[in-house]
């Protein structure tokens, strides 16, 4: 075994339900390789290199790796610390001193930028360490790959939750008519769109799906809701959290005054829109933010996604062994980190029907195998 | 077959993930009995009798009954219409005209009151119709039975969601320290308490559990959070939505001024408390309301609960056949409707440790078999 043959791993960015699957895939592959002198985790992204907080993962048992695989959120901890130039050099020095021959960083587009910078600094310092990234995101906003690990599990939760809430509202429609459900995805509509997979029949909820990429004209929105209410007797509308109006102003940022003076209160797009439905259409409406459960709920992960995340970790380790450097690596492809870092893959026009305010059937066909089979509901209709 | 041997069924109150299991259990038992001339559903509780909106369920196939069993929320629709004296008489006349020999009403403590009244009016009018209730609730606030159908499934969702969110926050604790999670249960703490089943180890989240039955002194709360933060480096606290302060004032009802004048804005207990944690303790805190998903998410129901709900429906039908009247009937017991109607079973003192702000181990032992096995997480600790 070579001296510089230790593997270091870190995680960063927002948690997902399967980010630890990628970690487990890396550890298992490294253990199986027989050429790695030690496997170490940095705590809280690169902060772990600055604070010298590391943990030895070399001898995790098969059972521990299996449990890790099914544990949501970043087991090594995440970080929002903004690395300075000198921090990178300090991190590289620490990793070199520890005998790190390989470094793998699991994260989203921000993390890929940090990863790229680390690789550059290590090269400048003449430190021989392969640095690669492993993708993770719930938003599916990473460019270059069709779907990133983490997205399909969050998408599955969103589709299941919207389906359940659709049945919930349908059963209450004599006294409550409209529900505005808010998903994650500050800049991109992939998760909001996933809610459409709740539909078994064309009349099923969600009746309207709005994406952050498409500016929302409030009057059009109210007309849409009114129309759907007339058609179905109740309306489930889904919005991405980053919705903006036609002036580019975030929807759901209101001015309130209290004893401390005027201040903006961010009530969120769904709450703001449900208030408008109440005041302008006179319908009983409630908002529902699916919240952080949608990125962490490990009980209903997409099995495809969980395995994909694991295989991405494995592939990244194996590619590092083959000498790949400075790349984001997934199960069946890779890209230079600098072609990924900080870039955003928005939801494409061809997957959205602007007239119906619905993802297209092509989107359904694309997403369905990724999230796995959905439950069937039995609806009792008055007129059969 | 007798002329008056038709069975009518209605549902009311808030939806649950398994209320349709009880409906399925009734239908299957009635089909199997061979003595029922027809099985009908009233739409939207007793409103269906007033508006003459009924649906024939006599010939539902086995497959349809199976699908119904796993469809969340009230398939027949719920109602919040307050029945007047004359409405009851009109409903009884309609049911009599339809040939109803038996009426089963699935619902909570409010519905049991309506059910009792219907039975009285039918008797006064000399209409021979057995009227019985079938329990359902997510709150577990029905008196007389150890656990009501619906509770364990909502409890399982709460425990799973809090467990996932605990891992989520733990992985972010370098930049976010406190999460206040709000559960349903306006007057009772059964669901808030269920979150404690997320714990595998004593140090696991939720670190603090507050119940609506116990008035909350804000300063004590802040001290609790501070103490837990010092101990664990992050804090997950769970509150029931109906939390009150020591003066009996609902927590989370604030006064705001906007252009329309002063108005109370109900931000909810969790949002209010997370703001206090931010302003008074200087920690980064977020609130998270588990919302309506907790009562409707059918993907993770307690298998015990689902079967229990089905068997309650079956038992209620069979007891009606045996001539029982005016009772709330479940799988292994029954009570007169008037001993249940409108009453609330609060969370008992002996299940709560006031010092630790935690449900007791006796509560864990009681609830664990009801919600079924929970996932195991693998936590990586810095100091092992």
Automatic annotation (TrEMBL), chains A, B:
<dbReference type="InterPro" id="IPR000023">
    <property type="entry name" value="Phosphofructokinase_dom"/>
</dbReference>
<feature type="binding site">
    <location>
        <begin position="184"/>
        <end position="186"/>
    </location>
    <ligand>
        <name>substrate</name>
    </ligand>
</feature>
<keyword id="KW-0324">Glycolysis</keyword>
<dbReference type="InterPro" id="IPR011404">
    <property type="entry name" value="PPi-PFK"/>
</dbReference>
<feature type="binding site">
    <location>
        <begin position="137"/>
        <end position="139"/>
    </location>
    <ligand>
        <name>substrate</name>
    </ligand>
</feature>
<feature type="domain" description="Phosphofructokinase">
    <location>
        <begin position="7"/>
        <end position="316"/>
    </location>
</feature>
<keyword id="KW-0418">Kinase</keyword>
<dbReference type="GO" id="GO:0005737">
    <property type="term" value="C:cytoplasm"/>
</dbReference>
<comment type="subunit">
    <text>Homodimer.</text>
</comment>
<dbReference type="InterPro" id="IPR022953">
    <property type="entry name" value="ATP_PFK"/>
</dbReference>
<feature type="binding site">
    <location>
        <position position="14"/>
    </location>
    <ligand>
        <name>diphosphate</name>
    </ligand>
</feature>
<feature type="active site" description="Proton acceptor">
    <location>
        <position position="139"/>
    </location>
</feature>
<feature type="binding site">
    <location>
        <position position="109"/>
    </location>
    <ligand>
        <name>Mg(2+)</name>
    </ligand>
</feature>
<dbReference type="InterPro" id="IPR035966">
    <property type="entry name" value="PKF_sf"/>
</dbReference>
<dbReference type="GO" id="GO:0046872">
    <property type="term" value="F:metal ion binding"/>
</dbReference>
<feature type="site" description="Important for catalytic activity; stabilizes the transition state when the phosphoryl donor is PPi">
    <location>
        <position position="136"/>
    </location>
</feature>
<dbReference type="GO" id="GO:0006002">
    <property type="term" value="P:fructose 6-phosphate metabolic process"/>
</dbReference>
<keyword id="KW-0808">Transferase</keyword>
<keyword id="KW-0460">Magnesium</keyword>
<protein>
    <recommendedName>
        <fullName>Pyrophosphate--fructose 6-phosphate 1-phosphotransferase</fullName>
        <ecNumber>2.7.1.90</ecNumber>
    </recommendedName>
</protein>
<keyword id="KW-0963">Cytoplasm</keyword>
<dbReference type="GO" id="GO:0047334">
    <property type="term" value="F:diphosphate-fructose-6-phosphate 1-phosphotransferase activity"/>
</dbReference>
<comment type="pathway">
    <text>Carbohydrate degradation; glycolysis; D-glyceraldehyde 3-phosphate and glycerone phosphate from D-glucose: step 3/4.</text>
</comment>
<dbReference type="Pfam" id="PF00365">
    <property type="entry name" value="PFK"/>
</dbReference>
<feature type="binding site">
    <location>
        <position position="241"/>
    </location>
    <ligand>
        <name>substrate</name>
    </ligand>
</feature>
<comment type="similarity">
    <text>Belongs to the phosphofructokinase type A (PFKA) family. PPi-dependent PFK group II subfamily. Clade 'B2' sub-subfamily.</text>
</comment>
<keyword id="KW-0479">Metal-binding</keyword>
<dbReference type="GO" id="GO:0003872">
    <property type="term" value="F:6-phosphofructokinase activity"/>
</dbReference>
<dbReference type="InterPro" id="IPR050929">
    <property type="entry name" value="PFKA"/>
</dbReference>
<comment type="function">
    <text>Catalyzes the phosphorylation of D-fructose 6-phosphate, the first committing step of glycolysis. Uses inorganic phosphate (PPi) as phosphoryl donor instead of ATP like common ATP-dependent phosphofructokinases (ATP-PFKs), which renders the reaction reversible, and can thus function both in glycolysis and gluconeogenesis. Consistently, PPi-PFK can replace the enzymes of both the forward (ATP-PFK) and reverse (fructose-bisphosphatase (FBPase)) reactions.</text>
</comment>
């Amino acid at each position: 075994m070579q001296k510089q043959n230790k593997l270091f791993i870190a995680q960063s960015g927002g948690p997902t339900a399967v980010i630890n699957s990628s970690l487990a895939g890396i550890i298992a592959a490294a253990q199986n390789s027989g050429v790695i002198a030690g496997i170490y985790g940095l705590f809280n992204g690169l902060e772990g290199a600055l604070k010298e907080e590391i943990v030895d993962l070399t001898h995790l048992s098969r059972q521990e790796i299996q449990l890790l695989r099914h544990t949501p959120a970043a087991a090594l901890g995440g970080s929002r610390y903004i690395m300075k130039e000198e921090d990178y050099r300090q991190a590289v020095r620490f990793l070199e001193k520890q005998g790190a021959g390989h470094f793998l960083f699991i994260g989203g587009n921000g993390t890929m930028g940090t990863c790229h910078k680390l690789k550059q600094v290590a090269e400048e310092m003449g430190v021989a360490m392969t640095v690669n990234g492993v993708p993770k995101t719930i938003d599916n906003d990473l460019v270059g790959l069709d779907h990133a690990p983490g997205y399909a599990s969050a998408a599955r939760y969103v589709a299941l939750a919207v389906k359940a809430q659709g049945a919930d509202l349908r059963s209450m429609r004599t006294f409550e008519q409209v529900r505005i459900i808010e998903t994650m995805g500050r800049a991109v509509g992939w998760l909001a769109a996933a809610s459409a997979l709740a539909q078994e029949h064309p009349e099923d909820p969600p009746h309207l799906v709005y994406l952050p990429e498409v500016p929302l004209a409030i009057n059009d929105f109210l007309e849409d809701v009114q129309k759907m209410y007339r058609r179905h007797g109740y309306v489930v509308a889904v919005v991405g959290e980053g919705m903006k109006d036609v002036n580019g102003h975030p929807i759901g940022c209101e001015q309130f005054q209290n004893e401390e003076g005027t201040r903006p209160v961010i009530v969120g797009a769904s709450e703001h829109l449900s208030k408008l439905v109440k005041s302008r259409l006179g319908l009983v409406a409630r908002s529902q933010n699916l919240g952080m459960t949608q990125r962490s709920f490990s009980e209903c992960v997409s099995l495809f996604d969980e395995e994909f995340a694991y295989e991405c970790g494995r592939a990244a380790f194996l590619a590092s062994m083959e000498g790949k450097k400075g790349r984001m690596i997934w199960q069946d492809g890779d890209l230079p980190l600098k072609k990924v870092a900080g870039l955003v893959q928005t939801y494409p026009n061809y997957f959205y029907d602007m007239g119906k305010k619905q993802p297209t059937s092509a989107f359904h066909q694309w997403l369905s195998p990724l999230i796995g089979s959905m439950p069937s509901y039995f609806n009792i209709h008055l007129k059969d």
